[in-house]
Amino acid sequence: MEKINNIPSLEQGRCEHGFEQIIGNSNALKCVLGAVERVAPTDATVLVLGETGTGKELIAQAIHKSSPRWARPFVKLNCAAIPFDLLESELFGYEKGAFTGAFAQKIGRFEMADTGTLFLDEIGDIPLALQPKLLRVLQEKEFERLGSGKTHRIDVRLVTATHRNLSEMVARNQFRSDLYYRLNVFPVMLPPLRQRREDIALLVSHFVEIFSRRMGKTIGAVPKEILDLFTAYSWPGNVRELQNLIERAVIGSDDETLANPFPALDGNALHSNVVNTDPVALHFAQTGTFQEAERAMILRALHSSGWVVGGCRGAAARLGLKRTTLISKMKKLGISRPAWQIKTNALNVNFDIEPSRQAFVQ
């Protein structure tokens, strides 16, 4: 695929190791995919955590495709989209005559996923009354259909996902602690899009190509000022919001240049979104001084990481930049460590690595 304006080729942004549907090369995303590679060959239960729109289902699919079960079924169910009185039958199935309206036998999702992978999205929305039955399936690998006393044995690899804080729900007695511990065998935390800004240009190229082909248009250029807006915006809806905004931009494009989708937002929606999540992006939207916004974002990331630059929890990963790129930007913008950090450096502590590893370099 050809470049779109100054955006790198999509082939350069495909994640390595066969994750073709996952776009990005940021350190934050690479940390996630490293965890996926580690857990995929096992049968361990995986809990995918992250904000709405971060791509939790894509990660679940990547785990399945990289596992020994890749040729077996991948079955998914959104627990929040099914009414409570139907969720149990969706999960476990029912026999003919089990209740009014059960005119034929129904196979549940667990049975459909036998020998494969079952992905339960929004697991935090599963009712408390149903949680003991789910716990039993995880512990005993068996269940009964509604209206039947026959026990069915299954071999299912379970991957779940939620945007909720399950540990807080456990503390409030809104989620069973024993089920939480069963689900939280191997947690995978997805970073929000604002922490992987390095991937935004690649995602823009990806979605522009998809929607322009779908609509029969040719978009060959993305103006730099629009790309700067995309990069500075906080993306409270993450990748899903970016996808929807690109679709709007392609619809509004009359020539081969991508239109600016932000003015199409109702009233001051752009500003209100940014006020709630990212005051730096609002500053850029109001002043147009991208360099100042970039400096403020870098400083905030450095403060949040305790002035750790590299590593999965460092400022570079938070910003979606390479360590060397961030150091270069810091020099260009005149950002240096505060005096107390310089004094601490005199004790031979390396602040370019994660705190958990500092003891090994002192």
Notes on the structure:
This protein is α/β, with parallel strands linked by helices and 362 residues long. The protein folds into 3 domains: 1-24 and 196-287, Helicase, Ruva Protein, domain 3; 27-189, P-loop containing nucleotide triphosphate hydrolases (Rossmann fold); 289-362, Arc Repressor Mutant, subunit A. Helix content is 43%, strand content 8%. The chain is built from 17 helices and 7 strands. The relative contact order is 0.12.
Terminal CA distance = 47 Å
Shape: globular
Please provide the count of β strands. Answer: 7
Going by CATH, the homologous superfamily of the largest domain would be P-loop containing nucleotide triphosphate hydrolases
Low-confidence stretches: 13-17, 264-288, 343-362
Element order: H for helix, E for strand: HHEHEHHEHEEEHHEHHHHHHHHH
Query: How would you classify the helix and strand content by structural class?
Result: alpha/beta
Instruction: Fill in the CATH topology of the largest domain.
Output: Rossmann fold
Would you identify the CATH architecture of the largest domain?
3-Layer(aba) Sandwich
Q: How many domains make up the 3D coordinates?
A: 3
CATH class (first level) name of the largest domain? Alpha Beta
Overall mean confidence score, pLDDT: 82
* Main sheet specs: 5 strands, parallel
Oligomer state of the chains in this structure: single chain
What is the count of DSSP helices, taking H or I runs of 4+ residues? Answer: 17
Helical residues, percent: 40-55%
Compact summary:
The chain has helices spanning 10-13, 27-39, 56-65, 84-92, 109-112, 131-140, 166-171, 177-183, 200-214, 224-232, 238-251, 269-277, 279-287, 290-304, 315-319, 323-332, 339-345, and strands at 46-49, 74-78, 117-121, 142-144, 151-153, 157-162, 186-189.
